[in-house]
Write a structure and sequence with these properties.
The protein is built from seven helices and no strands.
């Protein structure tokens, strides 16, 4: 029995390519693993970083830091209901935009209710800041002032660049 071999058709890929394919796959998996690890650690870092007012508290001396941090956390927990009220009120007001027929007076009343909820929340925040400021030394209040100026720089700047950057 004879087998006809088609001489025009080339043979399969060389045998040395298989180890290089395996090495390439291993290298790709290594980079994917490194990328996933970096993303995971960055995500965990975000959870531990102090945000908001706790960012300022972390600048205080260690002897006063623990007490003030605890007070801020307690006040933050007390404001949780206010924050949830804002979310619920906002969702309710936003849902009115698609109701037919659209009732402007009802929508405006919902927006005013949202503003009242936001004002209550901001008032609680301002009280917490004032309660903390009362416990600070003059130097620590200077730190608080600088922190607030940095954090809310957009409020201090009028519409456009600072005076030094205005075109002549």
């Amino acid at each position: 029995m004879t087998v006809n071999v088609d001489q025009a058709r080339p043979a399969g890929p060389p045998r040395y390519l298989y180890p290089s394919f395996i090495a390439s796959l291993a290298l790709n998996l290594l980079f994917i693993g490194l990328f996933a690890t970096a993303v995971w650690h960055h995500h965990e870092e975000d959870k531990t970083r102090n945000r908001g007012f706790l960012g300022f508290v972390s600048q205080l001396p260690p002897d006063t830091q623990a007490e003030i941090r605890q007070q801020v956390l307690e006040k933050r927990a007390a404001m949780k209901g206010l924050r949830e009220n804002i979310r619920k009120t906002w969702v309710d007001a936003n849902a009115m935009l698609t109701e037919e027929p659209f009732d402007k007076a009802k929508f405006l009343a919902a927006l005013m209710q949202l503003r009242t909820a936001e004002d209550a929340f901001k008032g609680a925040i301002y009280n917490a800041v004032a309660d903390t400021a009362v416990q600070l030394t003059p130097d620590q209040r200077k730190l608080l002032q600088e922190w607030r100026e940095k954090r809310h720089a957009f409020m201090l700047n009028r519409h456009g660049p600072p005076d030094g950057d205005k075109p002549k």
